[in-house]
Write a structure and sequence with these properties.
This protein is mainly beta. Helix content is 8%, strand content 22%. The longest helix has 12 residues.
């Protein structure tokens, strides 16, 4: 049987000891941490579990002084496992493949993330991680609803393999200035709503953009829609952006599409209102 800590039996006594007296916890034999195991341990500041493969839901939730977590062997981290750990600054889970719902919800001090093997990020996973400046997700395929909602320090996103971005996934990420998603095909409602410093968007394979996806992006002036067929656009996608405030090209907003599709875009449903902005992409 795997060496396990959870919320039952003697583990409750162990939890009480940790909560009162231990600030750093390292164990090189422990293989699993069950749900709620360290929930609310107010003295715990550092965790290193080199052979743990599974962390249960709520396992470290509300550990208010926890700053650093290293789980180099973990492949499963449950929902809300570190939610409301508002002192957490560093996480390293290089083998974890899924980040479940609300795993890091409101980790407002988080600045360093190593989750390079993740392929799916569920809803609200990094909701309210206000201090996170950048994140690289080289193999992620999908980003859930509200996944990075109000990550207001987020300046850089690397998503070379992502095809799906959920509703409000990056809403109010006020520090984002440009995004390039080479394989994204679907962008959900309000995905970048309120990204007030977003200037440039590149979407070479986009197929569908839902309502308000770029609403309140006050200085968005360049968007590249370069798929081989006309992208489906819902109404109100560009509300409160330069695209809706004037009909002039250039600084006031240009929509670049393949030269062969310019006329099709100018007459397409919900695109025709932006016909004066639509121009041929002549780059490489």
């Amino acid at each position: 049987m795997a060496n396990t800590i959870d919320e039952r039996g003697d583990a409750a006594v162990f939890k009480d000891l940790v909560e009162k007296t231990i600030s750093s916890f390292t164990d090189d034999t422990l293989e699993m941490v069950g749900p709620y195991a360290f929930y609310g341990c107010s003295s715990l500041s550092e965790v290193s579990l080199p052979v743990v493969t599974s962390i249960g839901s709520y396992a470290f939730m509300d550990c208010s002084t926890l700053t650093t977590v290293s789980l180099p062997a973990a492949t499963l981290v449950g929902s809300r496992a570190f939610a409301y750990c508002d002192s957490l600054t560093t996480i390293s889970f290089p083998l974890t493949t899924v980040i479940y719902s609300e795993t890091f919800h409101s980790c407002s001090s988080l600045t360093s993330v190593n989750i390079s093997a993740v392929v799916s990020i569920y809803n609200d996973a990094f909701f309210g991680c206000y201090s996170l400046p950048a994140i690289s997700l080289p193999v992620v395929k999908s980003i859930g609803d509200n996944a990075f909602y109000r990550c207001s320090s987020l300046k850089s996103i690397n998503l070379p393999e992502a095809s799906w971005i959920g509703a409000s996934a990056f809403s109010f990420c006020k520090s984002l200035s440009q995004v390039s998603f080479p394989k994204v095909e679907n962008i959900g409602s309000g995905a970048f709503y309120g990204c007030e410093n977003l200037k440039l968007v590149s979407l070479p394979r986009i197929k569908t953009i839902k309502p308000y996806a770029f609403g309140a992006c006050y200085i968005l002036s360049q968007i590249y829609i370069l798929a081989s067929s006309v992208c489906s656009l819902s109404g109100s996608v560009f509300n409160n952006t330069p695209f809706t405030s004037t009909s002039r090209l250039g600084y006031f907003g240009s929509i670049y599409v393949p030269e062969s599709l310019v006329n099709a875009y100018k007459t397409a449903t919900n695109w025709s209102v932006y016909s004066a902005r639509i121009t041929a992409y002549t780059g490489g």
